[in-house]
């Protein structure tokens, strides 16, 4: 296909005939289809993965020896069944869980809403094949929808978690994603219906061993819950922490809270921190090319991701760092990083702060690929669209000045990767701006605005 004088019609007609190999941007990774291997994750099968060197942290409340690497069960591998429908690949899940346990990982974090409601069952099947005392299970009270917020419905969620996870007790139970919607929403989900009292009662009975919450959003809610610590006694709190969000979360999104503040408040009270998003949904392993070169020059044998995991585990008040590991090589790389954990030097911390400042200069969309925005009622593949745009920024193929000698080549690459990575009905032009997705986004992204921006870019390139 010619790269000059391409009309919209001829471009769309010619997409299927393009023979050049273009890296697709379909970054489906968490329980929605075949996952793409994360960039910056070198895999060398000849390097031994240690079995007996995992770093552990001690829970001051229970004495649990928890692996610093926790298994996030949001991104289990998928396969097509005989009807062509996506389902969790249970055989692969079993293999990953077996390998993780064999190499010292003992903390597994799931939720009723993960993998479109199928993660708890798959996790329970895999774990129940091992002695119950060999692992810790974390799950959540995910009563987001109004119809789930009655006492009876919330109790049913908890009882189903026990059933699907094939256990009679939960080691770590979280109030899921508090902060969004402010204190009024927190009260509606957990106080007014009496469900928090119910969970405290389950803790007294030993059905819940540790009770805490995961936080996204309004810092007023975070501060309020910590102000109630003497009364409610939070056993742990799950926060988003990584070297970009440590000092620059608010610069990316005014709704976010710097991790330095969140961790500091927990540390003051002696509350263990559990870390989510150490890679920001993969964004810290899919960095801009020249930043990736900086990492590789500094430590050629170390993955880009390992720097982020070392940062997340660096602080002594961190009990475990969650990672959604779809592939065996992800699991192996993270085990190497934490077996044992090599804490960062002051000079390395300063280096990562410089990297964070560089990342801030690239105006990517703060999508962490959590897929809480899905499914879209209009069929749009929101995470893939946003992540493709980020990929184009990081790899430098966003077309700019039309007078640039590379403009035509960049235009071609962007359009082909966009068109080939997304079926027509899944693209940004199908967004009607309903905004249903917005309150579900933990990062507070104004998703319809971003989809409109991306669609305008695509239209302008097609019309050029």
Distance between the termini: 16 Å
Structural class: alpha/beta
pLDDT < 50 runs, ≥5 residues: 1-6, 13-30, 32-43
Tell me the Rg in angstroms: 22 Å
Order of SSEs, N→C? HEEEEEHEHEHEHHEHHEHHEHHEHHHHH
Q: Look at the structure and give the mean pLDDT.
A: 87
Helix count?
17
Report strand order across the widest sheet.
3-6-7-8-9-10-11-12
Number of strands: 12
What share of residues are in beta strands? Answer: 5-15%
Helix content: 40-55%
Report the major sheet: 8 strands, parallel, barrel
Globally, the shape reads: globular
Report what the structure shows.
It is a single chain. This protein has helices at 8-14, 90-102, 119-127, 151-164, 182-191, 195-205, 219-227, 229-232, 245-252, 259-269, 289-298, 304-313, 328-337, 346-360, 382-395, 407-421, 447-463, and strands at residues 56-58, 65-67, 69-72, 78-80, 86-88, 107-109, 136-141, 170-178, 208-215, 236-240, 273-276, 318-323. With 464 residues, it is of the alpha/beta class. The strands form three sheets. An eight-stranded parallel barrel has the order 3-6-7-8-9-10-11-12, surrounded by five helices. It has a two-stranded antiparallel sheet with strand order 1-2. The longest helix has 17 residues, at 447-463.
Please give a quick description of this structure.
The chain is an alpha/beta fold. The chain has helices spanning 8-14, 90-102, 119-127, 151-164, 182-191, 195-205, 219-227, 229-232, 245-252, 259-269, 289-298, 304-313, 328-337, 346-360, 382-395, 407-421, 447-463, and strands at residues 56-58, 65-67, 69-72, 78-80, 86-88, 107-109, 136-141, 170-178, 208-215, 236-240, 273-276, 318-323.
């Amino acid at each position: 296909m010619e790269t000059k004088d391409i009309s919209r019609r001829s471009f769309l007609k010619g997409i299927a005939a393009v023979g050049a190999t273009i890296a697709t941007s379909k970054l489906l990774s968490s329980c929605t289809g075949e996952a793409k291997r994360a960039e910056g994750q070198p895999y060398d099968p000849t390097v031994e993965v240690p079995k007996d060197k995992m770093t552990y942290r001690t829970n001051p409340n229970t004495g649990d020896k928890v692996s610093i690497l926790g298994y996030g069960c949001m991104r289990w591998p998928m396969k097509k069944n005989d009807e062509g429908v996506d389902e969790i690949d249970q055989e692969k899940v079993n293999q990953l869980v077996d390998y993780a346990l064999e190499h010292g990982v003992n903390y597994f974090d799931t939720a009723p809403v993960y993998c479109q409601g199928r993660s708890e069952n798959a996790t329970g099947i895999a774990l129940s094949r091992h002695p119950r005392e060999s692992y810790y299970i974390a799950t959540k009270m995910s009563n987001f929808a109004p119809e789930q917020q009655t006492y009876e419905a919330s109790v049913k969620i908890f009882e189903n978690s026990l059933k699907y996870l094939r256990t009679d007790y939960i080691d770590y139970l979280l109030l899921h994603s508090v902060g969004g919607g402010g204190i009024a929403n927190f009260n509606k989900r957990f106080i007014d219906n009496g469900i928090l009292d119910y969970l405290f009662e389950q803790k007294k009975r030993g059905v819940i061993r540790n009770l805490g919450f995961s936080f996204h959003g309004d810092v007023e809610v975070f501060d309020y819950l910590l102000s109630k610590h003497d009364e409610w006694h939070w056993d742990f709190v799950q926060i988003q922490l990584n070297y970009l969000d440590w000092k620059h979360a608010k610069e990316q999104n005014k709704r976010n809270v710097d991790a330095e503040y969140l961790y500091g408040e927990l540390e003051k009270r002696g509350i263990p921190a559990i870390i989510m998003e150490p890679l920001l949904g993969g964004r810290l392993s899919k960095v801009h090319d020249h930043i990736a070169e900086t990492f590789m020059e500094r430590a050629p044998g170390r993955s880009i991701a390992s720097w982020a995991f070392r940062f997340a585990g660096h602080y002594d008040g961190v009990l475990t760092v969650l990672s959604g590991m779809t592939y065996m090589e992800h699991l192996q790389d993270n085990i190497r990083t934490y077996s044992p954990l090599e804490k960062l030097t002051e000079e390395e911390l300063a280096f990562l702060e410089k990297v964070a400042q560089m990342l801030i200069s690239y105006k990517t969309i703060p999508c962490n690929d959590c897929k809480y925005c899905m499914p879209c009622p209009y069929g749009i593949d929101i995470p893939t669209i946003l992540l493709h745009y980020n990929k184009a920024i990081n790899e430098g193929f966003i077309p700019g000045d039309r007078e640039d000698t590379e403009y035509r080549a960049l235009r071609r690459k962007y359009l082909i990767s966009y068109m080939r990575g997304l079926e027509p009905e899944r693209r940004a032009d199908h967004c009607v701006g309903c905004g249903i997705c917005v309150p579900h986004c933990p990062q507070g992204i104004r998703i319809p605005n971003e989809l409109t921006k991306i669609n305008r870019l695509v239209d302008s390139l097609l019309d050029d």
